Amino acid sequence: MSPVLSISAATKTYKTGHTALHAIDLAVEKGEIFALLGPNGAGKTTLISIICGLVSLTSGRITVAGHDIVTGYRAARGMIGLVPQEISLDIFATVENTVQFSRGLFGKTPAPAYIEQLLRDLSLWEKRGARVNELSGGMKRRVMIAKALSHEPDILFLDEPTAGVDVNLRRDMWDLVRRLRQKGVTVILTTHYLEEAEEMADRVGVIDRGRLVLVEETAALMRKMGKRRLSITMQQKLTEIPPALAAWPLRLEADGERLVYEFDANAPETGMPHLLRELAAAGIDYRDLETGRSSLEDIFVGLVENGV
């Protein structure tokens, strides 16, 4: 089956000469939740804006369910819902009219039952008659999501959807994303909350300085690149790594109160028992041990810092 979104050698160079995207290749399947990660200025929003027809493509080809975004713009755009970072609404329109009007812009016939369920899913039904300027910031964000879903798109783009919003909206958002996925909707999101990507996304793409440096299944990425961490809380503060432990990849944290050892999560031998014996042999006492696994955030930061 063909991917619902296909990107081939997509580039973007502005008149200033700045190249924001370098030959991006990506295929996203129907019903997939795909997280696009990258630091500020990496090209995430530029790529989304090109797919949605807000920014022109310099070269390459992008199709949405087989429709070219340039030659078949109307068909391609009709399959896309976009929740941008910035809130842009008619502040004097009511919530319900805003969503209904957006549906009409895409040539869709009225669907009162669908709109009602959508507003209920986003906890907006009780506010349906309120004007946008009467709403809180979180409620306005909910209206933006409802607008993006008003025409029942096949692909939903969420550009930093939960940045600066309350916990309730974040929870409602991800509940809605799960339901959309069950209906076959493809969700592509950018986020700075990497724990969300780790929990929600089927695959992760990392973009840095306009280049897609990695695309991997989330679980496989965690297995491949995840590390385990042993935190040793010292009985007394250390000012430096003891010479007897110089051969170990250790670092001091918490102003010398904690000694940290990281190792390959997939390695058959962790080295922990040997390290603890060497601590005892060096006369170094500790009062607590804690182990954990590295997060997607740790992996992401390492990838970007190392320029992978």
TrEMBL record:
InterPro entries: AAA+_ATPase, ABC_transporter-like_ATP-bd, ABC_transporter-like_CS, ABC_transporter_ATP-binding, P-loop_NTPase. One of its GO terms (molecular function) is ATP hydrolysis activity. Keywords: ATP-binding, Nucleotide-binding, Transport. The keyword Cell membrane does not apply. Residues 5-234 form the ABC transporter domain. SUPFAM superfamilies: P-loop containing nucleoside triphosphate hydrolases (SSF52540). Gene3D superfamilies: P-loop containing nucleotide triphosphate hydrolases (3.40.50.300). Pfam families: ABC_tran. This is ABC transporter ATP-binding protein. It comes from Acidisoma silvae. The lineage of its organism: Bacteria, Pseudomonadati, Pseudomonadota, Alphaproteobacteria, Acetobacterales.
